[in-house]
Every structure is written in structure tokens, then in C-alpha cells.
Input
Amino acid sequence: MNTVFLESISTQNNDNTIPQSQVQVPEGELHIPEFFPVVKSLDQVVDVDYTIPGCPPEAHQIGAVIDVVISALKNGTALPPKGAILGANKVAVCEECILEKQEKLIQRFYRPYEIAPQASICLLEQGLVCMGPATRGGCGALCPKVGMGCRGCYGPLDGVEDQGARFLSAMASVTDVGTAKDEEHTTEKNIQAVMDSVADPAGTFYRFSLSHSLLNRARQTNGAGKGKMNEPHQH
Output
């Protein structure tokens, strides 16, 4: 809220006005949604029969799902079990990606504007954040094919509880932070340097999966300019 309404370099808000859930205006009282500390996905609010992942889902996958429904209505074909994820694969995006993996280690990560990636080499091994190892396939690796790292919009693979944590493991496997002979403080310093090169790790690793992650919440600000996390709700 502070960033958007008070601190942005393009913001002109001399009165330091922050949107409220109820505001009195000449025409009456306005009601706008309240911001909650816990981020919820659609299926955590309403009952969802099926999920078609993607941002957006691919047209041919939507068509295939519609064909299944039509077949069930016209021919009595059994529908997939409720809660199924349709129009996606059970393997990672990396399995569909044509970019070559060379098991190359890197020492930092780059923002997309900081580097022109080689067309045929794995983006992660070039220091670009690519969520392919932690993301369900089915898109045909469209983003990596054009030099843009996977953003994770198909969600985690089956059995993966936390997509961001899964990606951190993959990221660690390509990161050069020294050798086993190095002092512990040196290794920690190198690890911190790598993490410092990733802008907004939480927003990057959980762009589409925060509500289903172990984090499960947005950062809250209590008081003027004091970044604090509220106490977690009991579940």
C-alpha cells in the first residue's frame, strides 16, 4: 500500500491518502474490497470442479476440455474426477523445453533487461530466473523458447507442496558458491550474494502459487513505514 500510494516516484499524493474500505463522498458511501493479510486462491473461496492452468490456458487445451464435457453430455462418457487439473502434463516444463542443458554453474542472476540470452542454451544456466524445473508442463515451454524465463503459471507438479521451495532447490543446483573446502562464512557470503541478485524472490517464485504455498500470506505493514509480518492466523 505504501509503495503504490505513497512511495512510488510517479505518485502525486500530497495528502498521503490511502484507500479505505468505506469512504463518504457527496454521492453517498463507497464500499471497496478490504485487503486481507492472507492471500486466497479461487478454490479456497468457492467450490471448484476442475482447474485448467495457464496465464492464459492454451486454446487447444481449452478445446480438449470442452470436448470431454460434450462427450459426457452426449455420450455418457465418464468425466474426470472432481478437482482434477485438466489441459496440463504431469512432467515439468523443462521436459518440453528444447533449450540445451549443459550443467553449467553460475554466480549470479540477471534481470531480463540485463542480458541477451543465447538462443539455444538453458536460461537458468545463463543466470535468468526460469521456473521450468518447478512448474507443471503442458504449455510446450512457449516462454523459454523465445528467451523469456518460465513464470510458473501452470502451477506446481503433482506432489509438490510449495512451488517456490521446489524452485529454490533447482536454483541451488546451478549456483556456484564455492567448494566444500571454503570456510562456512565464505559460503554464506557467496549464497547471500546470489540471493541479492534476485529481485523480489517471493514475488518471483510465488507469482501464481502464493496462496497454496507454505507462506500463504502477503506482507503487512503495521505503522508508518515499518515493515512487519502480522502474527499468522490459526488454522
Remarks:
- Residues 117 and 218 are 32 Å apart (CA to CA).
- Residues 90-228 form one domain.
- The beta strands are 22-25, 28-31, 220-221, 227-228.
- The chain has two domains: 41-87, 90-228.
